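Teaching assistant's notes for section 4

Start the section by putting this record on the projector. Ask students to predict, before seeing the second block, whether Cell division protein FtsA will look compact or extended. Collect guesses on the board.
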Amino acid sequence: MNSNEIYVSLDVGTSTIKVIIGELVNDTLNIIGVGNVKSSGLKRGSIVDIDETVTSIKKAIDQAERMVGIHIDKVIVGVSANQVQLISTNGVVAVSKENKEIDNEDVLRVMDQAQVISIPPEREIIDVVPHEYIVDGLSEVKDPRGMIGVRLEMEGTLITGSRTLVHNILRCVERAGLEVTDICLQPMAASTIALKQDEKNLGVALVDIGGGSTTISVFREGVLIATSVLPVGGEHITKDLSIGLKTSTEDAEKIKVKFGHAFYDTALTEEVLSVPIMGSEQHHQYSQQEISDVIEARLEEIFLMVQNELSRMRGSNLPGGFVLTGGTVSMTGVIDLAQRVFKNNVRIATPDYIGVREPQYITGVGLIRYAFYKSKMRGKKLSSNIAFESNERKPVAVTNSNTKPKQQDEERVMSKVKSIFKYLWD
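Reveal the predicted structure now:
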């Protein structure tokens, strides 16, 4: 087959690692491959075991490769909102060309100027998000390229994250034999698929309930104004079921996914499930309503924690309501429970693409869409010209962590981080 322009996203979560292979044709995204495996080495959204995380990434990549029959060597990586800070910033430059037509170079220079800000050594710049460009005093310009002007300004948000967390994810990706083409904040990526522009303008909360954590992001006047991560998620519901039903964690997860109901009032009493009792060969009969009683209690607690955190984040007045996403919200009854707690409009966001029509894939698909948008604005190419392979796949070259001293390994990762950001901003 002929070579194709391919984009690959890597969404590293506490419970699962997802790889999305997409093809963009005339700005239309087609999903052609998916990898989704259980993750190891992460807790509450943070990497706690490098080797286990690398193994999980390789499994997800391998699954996606086998589905499509290609070799993946470049990925767009999502960074968790854990320990993220949002800083208002601005940049000002003189238009460089003699004819005073603003081009990609001017846009890159003004964004580069916006990064000239003092940040602590333990912080790393993840992204610069433009809110508006100003051309010779003309404000609210979304794309200044092609306009004539002498002075170009940009108002935006500088996103910084924990240097340790960013370096750990980059180290894992590198050891899995992959090259990072872009780094994106997960809530920003998810918002491109999950949220409507009107919702962002009015004020909306995007709530992503993952396996080990829940990410809350508030958008107002079209931009991200606050984000926070709570250390609770779907895995806590699974543990509650395991304890309450006296069954294994594995069986509890299956019960949650296939039989779970989040709203006690509408759960069925006549629908009964036989649950194996852990440590014996006995089974116990539970109705869907009895199981829902356990699920609702934990999920209601999560929603109340979200509500309290929103009050702290200046997110109490939200005319755009709440948009839920993440694997946990796939359960029946989630919207009913959320509306009762939040007393606001609630909907569940799902990607409208064949093969990924589940809330858990919002971030993975959003990473491709958001990175593509950024690359267009900055005149960068993030895609790979990947040849589809009809025969045996190429092996992924994996760095052996035991072949180099720890100090040398750290220096290599530091160099990797610098080269990534140099590519994105130079």
